[in-house]
Amino acid sequence: AQKVTQAQTEISVVEKEDVTLDCVYETRDTTYYLFWYKQPPSGELVFLIRRNSFDEQNEISGRYSWNFQKSTSSFNFTITASQVVDSAVYFCALSPNNAGNMLTFGGGTRLMVKP
Amino acid sequence: DVKVTQSSRYLVKRTGEKVFLECVQDMDHENMFWYRQDPGLGLRLIYFSYDVKMKEKGDIPEGYSVSREKKERFSLILESASTNQTSMYLCASNPLGGGGETQYFGPGTRLLVL
Q1: Fewer CB within 10 A of the terminal residue: chain B, N end or C end?
Q2: Element (H, E) at A23
């Protein structure tokens, strides 16, 4: 069985603060994929990143960075210098390495960035 | 750009009504998925389909059925809507691939059952 836990249900920060969203997962698969999605108030899930289990390099994309640590089964997401437009619900998800491509989602973290 | 569209953004139905939620994707993807989203529970898979006329149950199929008559279209059916089916419904699609293919989502349908 697979499980994704996002312990932070809601985070509130002031603009320009850095914020880290935690994601911890459980799986018995040796090969798997991890994802982060953003859901703005409009409702549509927007894909942010996909990482496979063999690639533990951290990734940076503009103000976004991801820290994948297999040893602690974590895939944390950091937003640097947060902006009001970053306010959204963020989901971490896990997919096994099979053709079914099914995703197991965490409960989501609601991020509120105040001006 | 991948485009997944859903027939309605908002729906209000009465208990016992039959409800159809339609999803269409334009990227020739083999796989299509229906999820429901509830606060604190994230997204839970209702059904998915990996080919025309094929379907597989997800984690919470009870009270739902699906139909996939054409590759681009995947319908979710609530045979007799109940108040506990009030939720946000999201459709997604991805190519078959070898595993871990990114899913692309539609805008969602907020369903209220009175």
Answers
A1: N
A2: none
The pLDDT, as a whole number, for residue B77 is 98
Q: Tell me the count of A-B CB pairs closer than 8 A.
A: 76
Query: Does B108 sit within 8 Å of A44, measured CB to CB?
Result: yes
* Beta carbons of A54 and B100 less than 8 angstroms apart: no
Compute the average pLDDT of residues B78-89: 96
CA angle B45, B50, B55 (to 5 degrees): 65
Q: Do B90 and A107 touch (CB under 8 A)?
A: no
Structure tokens at B63: 């009270």
Average pLDDT per block of 10 residues along chain A, 115 residues long = 92 97 94 94 91 87 93 96 97 81 90 97
pLDDT per residue as tens digits for the range B16-75:
999 999 999 999 999 999 999 998 888 999 999 998 989 999 999 999 999 999 999 999
User: What distances in angstroms separate CA A109 from CA A60, B14, B39, B52, one per listed residue?
Assistant: 20, 32, 10, 35
* Residue B6 in tokens: 């859903």
Distance set, CA A24 to CA A77, A106, B28 (Å): 11, 9, 33
Classified as helix, coil or strand, B76 is: strand
Contact indicator for A75, A23 with CB cutoff of 8 Å = yes
